[in-house]
Amino acid sequence: MNFTDKEDLREPYSSLTEVLELDEILKLADLWRGRQILFSTSVKDTDTYNELSDTIGAYKADRVINIYMGELVYFPKLKSLSVREQILREFNGYNYTGLARKYGYSERYIRKIVADKSKAIRAICENQTSLFD
Q1: φ, ψ for residue 37 (rounded to 5)?
Q2: Directed axis angle between helix 107-126 and helix 96-103, to 10°?
Q3: pLDDT of 22 over the 80 cut
Q4: Tag placement on the chain: N or C end, fewer CB within 10 Å?
Q5: What SS3 class is residue 73?
Q6: Residue 54: pLDDT band by 50, 70, 90 thresholds?
Q7: Is-contact 9 77, C-beta < 8 A?
Q8: For residue 79, what pLDDT band results from cuts at 50, 70 and 90?
């Protein structure tokens, strides 16, 4: 995994950029990859909180909990931008499930990657002037 900037991060990790340094986010991503965590009012009484505070310290752990309080958050495996580009190159319009299995993402996230790219392409096309204008 080659991350050099917080800009490479997607949700839910990008929500942490104001609280944690990149190396701390990467440690957290490694710790929680592929897990769903409920940030309820009793989260401080769980092993999850202990793992978090051991990894980044109690003060920052409390700040992370405040960010997600009341939410059920899925922490996907963290992939670099180059993997997202590879997914887009391999996408054929029908292979969401195969790409999800191959790269360890949910099918929903593969659809989001494709939709984000499609949205960006449409925005570029809408801003171009027509030859017929």
Answers
A1: -130, 130
A2: 120
A3: yes
A4: C
A5: strand
A6: very high
A7: no
A8: low
Domain assignments of the chain as residue spans, ordered by start: 6-75, 81-126
What span, in angstroms and rounded, lies between the C-alpha atoms of 97 and 107?
6
Residues 87, 31 contacting (CB under 8 angstroms): no
The CATH T-level fold of domain 81-126 is Arc Repressor Mutant, subunit A (1.10.10)
Which residue is it, tokens 């917080």?
A: 6
Tokens representing 28 are 């957290």
Tokens of 112: 């989001």
Cα(130)–Cα(127) distance, rounded to whole angstroms?
A: 9
What percent of the chain shows pLDDT beyond 90? 13
Q: What is the C-alpha separation between 28 and 122, in angstroms, rounded?
A: 35
Of the chain, the end-to-end C-alpha distance in Å amounts to: 47
